[in-house]
Design brief:
Radius of gyration: 20 Å
Number of helices: 11
Number of domains: 2
Largest sheet: 7 strands, mixed
Structural class: alpha+beta
Length: about 350
Amino acid sequence: MKQTTIRIPGKLYIAGEYAVLEPGEPAIIVAVNAYLSCRLEEKTHTGYSQWTSSLYPNDTFYYQGQHQVITKKWHYVYQAVTVAETYLSEIGIEVTEYDLHFDSELIDQDGAKYGLGSSGAVTVATIKAILTHHQYAFTPVELYKLATLASLNVSEKGSFGDIAACVSGGWVLYRSFDRQWLLSNMQAKNSYAALVQQPWPLLEISPLDVHPTLQLMIGWTQSPASTDYHVQHFEQARLAQDDDYQYFIHESRVFVETLATALIKGDLTVVFSTIQELRHLLQKISAKWQLGIETPALTQLIEDAAAYQYAAKTSGAGGGDCGIALGHNTSEATALTQLWQQHHIKPLQLSVAPSQTR
C-alpha cells in the first residue's frame, strides 16, 4: 500500500507579537528544525480511518466521516481532514481511504510543549499529506490558506503566522489578512476552492534572507503558556482602539520593519537596539492590560543573554514557554547556555529550518 510521510517544522516569533493580530501589521517568525511528522497510509475500503499519535499511545481515533463528535485533542486534525477532503472533491479529485499517524519533536520527553506551534504544524502536516497523497500540485500559498481555513473552524483567535512559518520554513516576514473579509466570505458559504483562489486582502508571506553572521539561541522556561488566554485579554484592548493601542500598533510596525532590514544587512547594532525596544514595548502593554507577558523566568533569560552580548526578548504570547536571543559571538554561546542551565532555563539545541519545498 502507498505511504506518504510529511515533516513540518515548528516556529518561534521573533518580533511583532500581539500587533500582528491586527490585519496588515508585520511580524517576524522563524521556522526551527524540530518537526511534527504525519504519516499517511493508504488502505482498502473499510468505512473508517484510524488516527494514531505517539502523544496518545493508548488512544486510537476511528474517523467515520464528517459531522461526527470529536474529542478536543483531535479537533485540528479533524478540521484539516475535512477541509482537505472537501477541497479535493470540489476540484474533482476522488478521495481514497487512508490512516494517519503523528509523531512530534515539539515536546519534551515528559510531554510538555515547548511552545513551537504544534496546532499549526499538525494542521499543515495533515493537509499537506492528504494533498500530496492524492497527487495534487498545490502551491505554498494554497497550503497556507487551506490550513488557515481549517484552523479558523477550530478557533478564530490568533494571527495564523505559525501556519505561514510552518509552510515556508526559514525566516518569514508575515502580515495577517483582513479577517473580517475572510469570515464574511466563509459565512456566505463560499466553497473552499473559491476562497483559496481569491487574493486575501493584506496577506503577506515573504522570506527574509537573514545575514549569516547572526546566531539565534532559544531558551525554554519549562513553564508552558496559554496563547489563547493572553490573546483573549489583549483582544479587549484591541476592540477599544484607544490612543494607547494605536501607539502600540504604530511603534510595533516601525520596530519590526526596522529589525527586518537590520537582519538582512547583518547590522548588529540596530538588531540589538531594536530587540530592546520591542521588549520594552511589550512590557508597557503587559503592564497596562495585565497580560503577564514577561515572567520572572523570562526576565532571567533576557538578563543572562545581555551579560554575554546577546539581545533577547520573549517569544510569542509570553507568560512562559520560550525566549529568543540574537547575537554573533559564538564563543560566548557555551557560557550563556551554561548560565541558562544554572537558572533552570533549558537551552533548545535548535537551528533555523530550511525553506520548505514540495
